[in-house]
Amino acid sequence: MLPARHAVIAATVFDGETALRESAVLIEGRRIVWVGPRQALSPSIPAHVLPGDAWLVPGFIDVQVNGGGDALFNAEPNDSTLSRMATAHRTFGTTAILPTLITDTRETMRAGLAAVRATSVDSGILGIHLEGPFLSPEKPGVHDVGMMRAPDAEDFELLCSLLPRPTLVTLAPECVRAGFIGRLVAAGVRVSLGHSMATYAQTRRALDEGLSGFTHLFNAMRPLGSREPGPIAAALESSAWFGMIADGVHVDAAMLRLALRGSASPMLVTDAMPPVGGRLTHFTLNGRRIEVRGACCVRDDGALAGSVDYLLASQHPDGSWGDPGITDPHKQYHTAWTAIDALRDYDWQDRPSWPEAVLKCFAR
Fold this sequence. Notes:
Blueprint: E1 5-14, E2 19-28, E3 31-37, E4 47-49, E5 55-58, E6 60-65, E7 67-68, E8 71-72, H1 79-90, E9 94-102, H2 106-117, E10 128-131, H3 153-159, E11 167-171, H4 180-187, E12 190-193, H5 200-209, E13 213-214, H6 230-236, E14 241-245, H7 253-260, E15 265-269, E16 282-285, E17 288-293, E18 296-299, E19 304-307, H8 329-336, H9 339-343, E20 359-362
Parallel strand pairs: 1-4, 1-5, 6-9, 9-10, 10-11, 11-12, 12-13, 13-14, 14-15
Antiparallel strand pairs: 1-2, 2-3, 5-20, 7-8, 16-17, 17-18, 18-19
Helix pairs in contact: 5-6
């Protein structure tokens, strides 16, 4: 076992921006205190040298994780589920997640928030992503239309109850009152558009109110049209971030290439379901059977129901995500790590302990 003050040396250390050859990371306790050339490291410092041409990189952050380790957050919104999810995704290099609760009852939302509140950021649970229930019944995906509704005053308080822990809310702007997004943003909540039939004009107004993200772009939203460009056009010409499920099924590679040419910031997400890091080949969501088919999950009627991908799997060995056109591994990796930008302004009360929550090495 390495002492509290030690170094990790790798053929390449990638800090999120620059690939540093033959470099070292100096750790004191649970904090990284220095990154630099291995030659500059004092020989008196105990060091662990990673084998071969391994890369040492920051762990991935996934802001859309429904489950993992055979556990589903909606089914059992408790600390045991969160632990199983975090452990399952950490195995694949994702060291921090926003557990995602899709459209459900107010009681389940309270339970999910309470479960997250009981964790520490060091556990890999950064905060929560509430994907619904303020969504459009015209674009439900596998969400329960019967549970969708407009928010009221009690909901506003509930959505803000976890702050200052990161709280991401996915909603359909056309399904909430004018000013609601602005109030959430002013309180410190991140707001993203998803499961929406919003027009281009409605999306622009939401962006003006402070909407800063788009959940699984292209999926479950008004499609791009010549006369009504909708939220996709508004997203791609904005400075917002947008999530992409690059499992080769949810979005065609040509659409991914189109998205990457816009001015918004792309971010890989998985929309991961319980089988990630587990053994299940099927599970139940909202009383319906969901089966694993390849990299994704499919409901009995053929509707897509998330994925069994993990962020590292979204980056193929040939340097692409289902051939979306990114072959530069630096830009590719940075896109998988962009979640830190979406969450960077939070005033953390319990800051993550690096490297356990951030660094992970992978052999290329």
